[in-house]
């Protein structure tokens, strides 16, 4: 069974400052986690914008080469979609069972994450199924605390198992409805309880999600220090990792795309910008600015 781990990074964004920031996060976090996996049978694929600066593209390729990885350029304007619709568009022709996993660039996972996913996926008996490792943590950097998080719908590493590259992939459609789509297709949905956290969402006050969701301190937060000796160790990360990541976020200030208002307004903006961009020459100065605003609208939906 082939296993593809797919990470979206900056589709619609061409600013070097954005990539500089997120490459720092990858180097300190997810890339380290993947290098420490007890099961290395996976291919890591980064989907980036077609207009990514050459230097950033080269740096990302060098970064994930050790994970048998590759960087895929994608043009959301020419394709009129922010991300590919099918698995075939990402990995090519597929003629054997495969597992496709979604992980964001600022997430972290324990060293048995891939092994656990593969073990559970190998139990599937139906074509096209979905799997979720539901136990993780929310880490709130600016508040110095974390909360346990049971997330059965779209946790870090939510995955699909299939036999055909034409099937829907982990970035197609509303990922909150992935299990629902699996049921409609007659597949199995597996929600796995590990009891101990196997992943972490990293929340921080300057993020795009905080800009439109808010970033208040959780009332049931526990000290981040509780995660240092066990969880961070299992992720392959250093004891002072939370401080390192906070320092990166605090030092960089000009990498974030524009965030726009309500969900209804963002949807309207998305349609407006798609129409505008489809009529612009890609060398037009307005192209990059509009593409970034479009990306922000999609991120925020």
Describe it for me?
37% of the residues lie in helices and 20% in strands. The chain is built from twelve helices and twelve strands. It has a seven-stranded mixed sheet, sandwiched between helices. A five-stranded mixed sheet has the order 5-11-7-8-12. The two termini are 33 Å apart.
Please outline the helices and strands:
Blueprint: E1 2-9, H1 16-28, H2 30-35, E2 43-49, H3 54-64, E3 70-74, H4 76-79, H5 88-91, E4 98-102, E5 108-109, H6 113-121, E6 129-133, E7 135-140, E8 145-150, E9 159-162, H7 178-184, E10 189-192, E11 199-203, H8 208-213, E12 222-223, H9 228-235, H10 241-251, H11 263-278, H12 285-300
What keyword list fits this structure?
301 residues, 12 helices, globular, alpha/beta, seven-stranded mixed sheet, Spore Coat Polysaccharide Biosynthesis Protein SpsA, Chain A, five-stranded mixed sheet
Unreliable parts: 210-214
CATH architecture annotation name of the largest domain? Alpha-Beta Complex
CATH topology of the largest domain: Spore Coat Polysaccharide Biosynthesis Protein SpsA, Chain A
Average the pLDDT over all residues and give the rounded result: 80
What class, by secondary structure content?
A: alpha/beta
Kindly report the spatial arrangement of strands forming the biggest sheet.
3-2-1-4-9-6-10
Approximately how much helix is present in the residues? 25-40%
Silhouette: globular
N- to C-terminal distance? 33 Å
Number of helical regions: 12
Biggest pleated-sheet summary: 7 strands, mixed
Radius of gyration: 19 Å
- Percent of residues in β-strands: 15-25%
H-E string: EHHEHEHHEEHEEEEHEEHEHHHH
The total number of structural domains is 2
- The beta-strand count equals 12
């Amino acid at each position: 069974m082939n296993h593809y781990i797919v990470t979206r990074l900056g589709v619609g964004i061409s600013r070097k400052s954005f990539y500089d920031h997120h490459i720092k996060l990858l180097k300190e976090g997810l890339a380290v986690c993947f290098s420490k996996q007890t099961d290395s049978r996976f291919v890591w694929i980064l989907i980036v914008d077609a207009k990514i600066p050459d230097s950033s593209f080269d740096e990302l390729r060098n970064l994930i080469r050790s994970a048998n990885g590759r960087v895929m350029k994608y043009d959301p304007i020419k394709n009129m979609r922010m991300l590919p619709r099918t698995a075939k568009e990402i990995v090519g022709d597929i003629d054997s069972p495969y597992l496709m996993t979604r992980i964001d660039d600022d997430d972290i996972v324990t060293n048995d994450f891939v092994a656990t996913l593969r073990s559970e996926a190998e139990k599937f008996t139906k074509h096209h199924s979905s799997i979720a490792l539901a136990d993780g943590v929310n880490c709130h950097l600016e508040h110095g605390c974390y909360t346990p998080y049971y997330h059965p719908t779209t946790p870090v590493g939510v995955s699909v198992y299939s036999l055909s590259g034409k099937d829907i992939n982990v970035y197609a459609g509303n990922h909150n409805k992935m299990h629902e789509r699996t049921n409609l297709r007659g597949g199995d949905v597996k929600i796995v309880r590990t009891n101990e956290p196997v992943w972490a969402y990293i929340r921080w006050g300057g993020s795009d999600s905080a800009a439109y969701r808010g970033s208040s301190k959780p009332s049931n937060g526990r000290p981040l220090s509780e995660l240092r000796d066990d969880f961070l160790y299992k992720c392959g990360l250093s004891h002072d990792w939370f401080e390192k990541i906070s320092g990166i976020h605090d030092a960089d200030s000009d990498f974030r795309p524009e965030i726009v208002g309500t969900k209804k307004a963002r949807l309207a903006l998305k349609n407006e910008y798609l129409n505008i961009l489809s009529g612009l020459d890609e060398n037009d100065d307005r192209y990059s600015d509009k593409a970034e605003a479009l990306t922000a609208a999609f991120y925020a939906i």
